[in-house]
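Dear H.,

Thanks for agreeing to be a second pair of eyes. The structure we're designing against is below in token form, covering all 252 positions.
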């Protein structure tokens, strides 16, 4: 688990300035736009698979200024929900007025950190549908990635590649002795940008789906089966693979 350091906000020098950023979200597989419900993909373990839907949270988006300061986006909201089935979630028009300047990088928390990830925080759908069972740690899923794969018996089987709070068991499936949060920090590669006075910039955050299954761990659905919510070992491998799942592209 990687904690996100608290950041000191850099306030705009001129209250008349109005610099904004828009975060948009995309889903790619092998460099192409995701096509759902179609068995056209093959992962690193040679599993043939399809994706039905993906839902996930990002939070604590931080802009790292070249002068050494950092800006944590949280003036209006600090957690954003993205859903392949809900186009309105693909764009986040950030309310914060960002200082003009040069920024070296962008980082964020994949999921929701331990302090914020509290049961009943969301009371309305679709976010409320992301609840994580209380007896498994409570709070909310970091991600639901649902699909199907052609298993070793050549049968099409569903998989729920879900990440959330993991469990430590004295005796599985009972006797939970502890929990592991499984959120992690993402440093977006090649995310340096400049922001001029009164400029709005759109930054697209891309999920490269195939990377969940390939590096540093080759993830085989035949090994882990269709449900990993109570399998911390599988979730740990997935979180390690998350290090290069996300990339950035500047739209304007």
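And this is the sequence the design step returned. I haven't edited it by hand at all.
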């Amino acid at each position: 688990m990687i904690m996100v350091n608290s950041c000191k906000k850099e306030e705009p020098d001129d209250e008349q300035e109005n610099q904004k950023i828009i975060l948009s979200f995309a889903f790619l597989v092998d460099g192409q736009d995701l096509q759902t419900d179609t068995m056209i993909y093959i992962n690193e373990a040679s599993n043939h698979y399809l994706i039905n839907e993906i839902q996930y949270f990002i939070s604590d988006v931080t802009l790292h200024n070249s002068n050494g300061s950092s800006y944590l986006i949280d003036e209006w909201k600090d957690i954003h929900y993205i859903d392949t089935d809900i186009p309105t979630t693909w764009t986040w028009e950030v309310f914060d007025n960002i200082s003009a300047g040069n920024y070296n990088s962008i980082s964020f928390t994949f999921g929701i950190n331990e302090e914020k990830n509290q049961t009943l925080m969301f009371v309305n759908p679709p976010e409320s549908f992301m609840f994580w069972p209380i007896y498994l740690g409570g709070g909310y899923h970091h991600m639901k990635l649902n699909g199907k794969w052609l298993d070793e018996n050549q049968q099409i089987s569903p998989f729920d590649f879900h990440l959330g709070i993991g469990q430590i068991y004295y005796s599985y499936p009972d006797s939970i002795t502890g929990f592991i949060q499984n959120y992690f920090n993402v440093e977006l590669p090649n995310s340096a940008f400049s922001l001029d006075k009164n400029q709005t910039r759109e930054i697209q955050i891309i999920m490269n789906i195939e990377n969940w299954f390939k590096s540093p761990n080759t993830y085989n659905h035949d090994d882990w089966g269709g449900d990993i919510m109570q399998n911390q070992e599988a979730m740990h491998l997935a979180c390690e693979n998350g290090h290069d799942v996300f990339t950035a592209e500047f739209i304007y």
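Two observations from my side: The radius of gyration is 19 Å. Residues 37-250 form one domain.

Warmly,
E.
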